[in-house]
Specification:
About 65% of the residues lie in helices and about 5% in strands. By secondary structure, it is α+β, with helices and mostly antiparallel strands. A 4-stranded antiparallel beta sheet has the order 3-4-2-5, with helices on both faces. A 4-stranded antiparallel beta sheet has the order 10-11-7-12, with helices on both faces. It is elongated, with a radius of gyration of 43 Å.
Length: about 1000
């Protein structure tokens, strides 16, 4: 037969043998796939256990991954599991309602057994309670030490008060008695008698006598030395008898205060003397309560705490006797029973910054887990996501009690809720996209074949391919690595799109052979021989393109590549074996109601139209053949504006911007930026390693601190930086405090050391600096800012030898690394896939010129589609188009768009093998395949277009871009540009292998 005579190549012989084998034993492939399906079914329930969120996964060599490794090693407290942020919004979160709600939410979450893998719940109040407890522990220890010293602090205060105030008190009492018993005498006349009597009463106590002398006469030299005069001198207290006590107190302070070293030789005793003079008087110096207050003030001064706070601690824990449990309970009680204005210590700026918006209109509660949100139990459970749902259920219950006026709202956001929102978006999309895709593709198939049974045959095989594809996901997830959840939706789209294309291409070729009058059984062989070869070639290129993603070096693309290449392989094998087998079993009945005589009449009409060249694609082929240069020129002119848009398009770097509004996580992320600043959610982390430890015992390395302060100042002055949090910043302590550190009180040193520990790695040399951008942390502006910061810090490090290491982490750094890897992977993928496709086409078509021509024309489709995507979705709809989209589109269209080239060009080769010239073969091939290619394009484009119903903008953009590229490729490029290019090149395209072509055969028609 003609098909046998034409089938002279190795490929044709192999596929003819396959067709005859299926014809002989059609039940074998059917049973094989059914058995394989039954084996795969138990694995389908495990799909959720091998899916994850990996959009930000990087190889260990990436700079941000190196920084993260350093964080994991040096900052273990900063490298935990997942986090969730509860964002409370209201008119005043520091009021009683806000505080009660935060505390109640904290208790409810901590006590709920359904919230599993909980590491802790942090809020302004829990963090302040820890701060209060730490200060209370310092105060209690200092009180206990002072009370237990020899002499005790109380005894020291009593002795000092007796020394400094005792002589004055005795003198004033004596003077007042003399004046009272001798009315009418001048008050000053009793100054000397009172002095003598007081001195006699003091006995041989030189210190007391010296104090009395200073009080009475003033310091040696009198007022001329700069000191105030004594009672009997310029102070002239006797001139106002009614104010003698106040005058005597002022005189004592003025004469003794500057000369305490004469009475109290030790500096510590002098400090105590100053407190005694300042805080006691003639009426209180011997009062035990007043003396205790001075004693506690002395303790407070020694350790560097507020006197009132130390008195509070002494009142709660007399003598400083306090266990850790009692201190914790006390601090929690202070927080739980008070409000911010009543707290014994002010809230430090670092705590306010971490949890409270500047205008107090929002407050954060941080829920931390000890596992990542990707963690799954052996049964596939997701404890973090389950806990997030439980927290979402708790919130309204708690607020109903603490906020009956409904003044507060709560949004749950952060890394874990955003990942959960992604899963929810994909799950809801999958529930809509899959049935909608099937429905649309079934409808298109019915319309194209005008046969309701045709979809049953094609989609029966696709159902098996879908199930096996999901089982393949489980296989990849268990043997290699877990895959991103977006892979499931892309895989289903791929299987349905390319699988339907391949299936209907086979059925359409089978119908074409029947139209020509072939026996149904022989039509199967011819179909598998020619259409099967085209499908195998097309599938090979699609597998090559998707498999290339698996070697991209970008985790998400690698997982897509593994899953999609396996899915395409399954779809190809099902199309080449199961669909022909079903055709053998069903036969021409697949075209019911067009069977029998009705089918023959329809065939005669179709064949007649083709013979008379009255079809659209015959007319297009002839028209393009007459004016190929005009066609190429017109298409080039149309390409210019779209290519300009494609080359100048800006993409988005924010992965979470791909999620829709309306979810608590996404709305909360937006609200977080509004209340706390756009760069708050995803700051840049700078790790600076110094040559020496910052603290060595009680000493500071000032050169290191000075460098850190200068670097922070430099970063703060960089355009695009909103603020910088460093050890020398406003949330920690200024450089002057660190300079004075060795001389500061012990409690101050302890608190500063505790503050520094939050910035300092376990090596004592690596410092954590947080840089908040003035734009969103994942925006293109933040990524560009990162480049600026790297240059700034590198320049600073080169000029400061104490800076020996620098690493950047955080959202912008991870995004930048993934973007750079994606860009590099895109270049490599395009080169590798293009060369691979050309190699496959060279092998199949035996032409040097056709492979690069085919790839180049696909490039035109890609350029048009990318330009259209940015115009429609970017400019008109305002969607942020993620930078993954062009990479995915380029690679997928190279792999999928080549299908139509292959369908067309393999038919051109078939027609040449039948004896046509190159130009005539192109006309005949275009006329024969134009309809099915258009139908296949509509099917594939519809499958991807339905991705636009997804709420996930990344999939929406991929769907639009690929669908647009497929339609343009099939309807314009494949129909006009490829034929026009082939006509211009003529016979030279077949020079690798040029079979003899009799000129008289140009008018020949394919034989039946």
């Amino acid at each position: 037969m003609a098909s046998d005579r034409a089938a002279s190549g190795i490929g044709e012989r192999v596929f003819r043998a396959l067709g005859r084998g299926i014809l002989k034993h059609p039940l074998y492939p059917i049973l094989f796939w059914v058995v394989l399906l039954l084996v795969a079914l138990p694995f389908l329930g495990a799909v959720s256990s091998v899916t994850t969120n990996s959009a930000t996964t990087l190889p260990a060599s990436a700079p941000s991954a190196v920084a993260q490794a350093e964080i994991d090693r040096l900052f273990p407290n900063q490298s935990g599991g997942a986090d969730s942020l509860l964002l409370l919004e209201g008119p005043n979160l520091t009021g009683a309602t806000g505080e009660a709600s935060v505390l109640a939410l904290t208790r409810a979450i901590e006590s709920d057994p359904s919230v599993t893998n909980l590491e802790g719940v942090s809020s302004l109040y829990t963090t302040y309670a820890s701060y209060l407890e730490a200060n209370g522990r310092i105060a209690a220890a200092a009180i206990a030490a002072a009370d237990g010293s020899t002499p005790s602090i109380d005894a020291s205060v009593n002795a000092t008060a007796s020394l400094l105030w005792g002589p004055t008190a005795t003198y004033v009492a004596t003077w007042s008695t003399l004046l009272a018993t001798h009315p009418g005498t001048p008050p000053a006349s009793w100054n000397a008698p009172a002095y003598n009597a007081t001195a006699a009463s003091l006995g041989p106590d030189p210190g007391a006598l010296e104090a009395l002398a200073y009080f009475y006469e003033g310091p040696p030299g009198g007022a001329g030395t700069g000191y105030a005069g004594g009672f009997n001198k310029s102070a002239d207290c006797a001139s106002a008898p009614l104010a003698v006590v106040a005058c005597a107190e002022n005189t004592t302070r003025a004469t003794l205060g500057p000369n305490l070293d004469l009475f109290l030789p030790l500096p510590s005793a002098q400090a105590l003397g100053g407190l005694v003079l300042a805080n006691l008087g003639l009426a209180t110096f011997s009062n035990a309560t007043a003396q205790r207050s001075v004693a506690l003030a002395a303790v407070a001064e020694t350790v560097g705490l507020a006197p009132g706070f130390v008195e509070t601690v002494d009142g709660v824990f007399p003598g400083g006797v306090a266990t850790g449990a009692r201190l914790t309970a006390w601090a929690d009680g202070v927080v739980g029973n008070g409000t911010l204005p009543t707290y014994p210590l002010p809230v430090p700026p670092a705590i306010s910054f971490a949890f409270l918006a500047p205008n107090a209109s929002a407050e954060l509660v941080v829920v931390s887990f000890d596992v990542s949100d990707n963690y799954k139990t052996a049964s596939g459970g997701t404890p973090v996501f389950d806990s997030l749902e439980e927290i979402a259920r708790l919130v309204p219950t708690v607020l109903a009690v603490t906020d009956p006026g409904h003044t507060l709202t709560v949004l749950q956001t952060g890394g874990a809720p955003l990942d959960q929102a992604q899963n929810q978006v994909l799950s809801s999309s999958l529930g809509l996209v899959l049935p909608l895709t099937v429905l649309v593709l079934v409808g298109i198939t019915i319309v194209y074949f005008r046969a309701p049974l045709a979809p049953a045959l094609t989609f029966g095989g696709l159902g098996i391919a879908l199930a096996l594809g999901l089982a393949g996901v489980v296989l990849v997830g268990r043997l290699i690595e877990h895959v991103d959840s977006t892979s499931l939706e892309l895989q289903n789209t791929f299987v349905l799109g390319v699988g339907t294309d391949y299936s209907i291409f086979l059925v359409a070729r089978y119908r074409e052979e029947l139209w020509k009058g072939a026996d149904p059984r022989e039509a199967i062989v011819t179909t598998v021989t020619w259409a099967g070869q085209s499908i195998a070639t097309s599938g090979s290129t699609a597998i090559l393109a998707t498999l290339a993603l698996a070697f991209s070096g970008v985790a998400l693309l690698e997982q897509w590549g593994m899953v999609l290449s396996l899915a395409v392989l399954i779809a190809v094998l099902v199309s080449l074996t199961l669909v022909p087998a079903l055709l053998v079993v069903v036969g021409p009945r697949v075209f019911w109601p067009y069977t029998g005589e009705r089918f023959r009449r329809h065939a005669d009409r179709t064949v007649g139209r083709r013979r008379e060249e009255r079809t659209y694609f015959y007319r297009v082929g002839r028209a393009v053949r007459r004016r190929p240069r005009t066609v190429v020129l017109l298409l080039a002119l149309v390409s210019l504006p779209l290519f300009y848009v494609a080359l100048t398009a800006q993409t988005s770097y924010d992965f979470y911007a791909q999620l829709p509004a309306g979810y608590s996580a996404t709305d909360g992320l937006a609200a977080l930026g509004t209340h706390f600043g756009p760069g708050r959610a995803f700051p840049t982390i700078l790790l600076v390693t110094m040559a020496s430890p910052l603290l060595v015992g009680n000493a500071t390395n000032l050169s290191e601190f000075t460098d850190l302060a200068d670097l922070a100042t430099l970063l703060n002055g960089t355009s695009g930086v909103a603020s910088v949090d460093s050890p020398t910043g406003p949330l920690a302590a200024p450089l002057s405090t660190w300079v004075a550190y060795p001389r500061l009180p012990s409690a101050t040193q302890a608190l500063l050391a505790g503050t520094l520990s939050g910035y300092l790695g376990t090596d004592g040399r690596t410092v954590w600096i947080t840089v908040y951008s003035s734009s969103g942390g994942l925006t293109a502006e933040s990524v560009r800012l990162l480049d600026t910061l790297r240059g700034t810090v590198d320049g600073f490090a080169s000029a400061h030898p104490d800076v020996v290491g620098v690493a950047f982490g955080g959202g912008a750094a991870v995004t930048s690394d993934i973007e750079q890897q994606t860009a590099l992977a895109t270049q490599r993928l395009l080169l590798a896939v293009s060369l691979g496709l050309m190699a496959v086409l060279l092998l199949v078509l035996r032409s040097w010129l056709i492979p690069p021509l085919a790839v180049a024309t696909i490039g035109v489709s890609i350029g048009w589609a990318w330009g259209a995507t940015n115009l429609v979705l970017g400019s008109l709809a305002g969607y942020p188009i993620f930078y993954f989209v062009p990479t995915v589109m380029f690679v997928l269209i190279l792999g999928l768009g080549i299908d139509y080239n292959i369908f067309l060009l393999t038919r051109v080769r078939e027609e040449r093998l039948r004896g046509h010239s190159s130009d005539e073969a192109m006309v005949q091939a275009l006329a024969s395949t134009g309809g099915i290619i258009s139908a296949a394009a509509v099917i594939l484009a519809s499958a991807f277009a339905i991705l636009m119903t997804s709420e996930f903008l990344l999939l929406k953009a991929i769907g639009f871009a690929v669908a647009t590229a497929v339609v343009l490729d099939a309807m314009v490029v494949r129909t006009y540009l490829v034929p026009a290019s082939m006509f211009l090149l003529g016979e030279r395209v077949w020079r690798l292998r040029r079979p003899p072509v009799p000129p008289s055969n140009d008018a020949a028609r394919p034989t039946r």
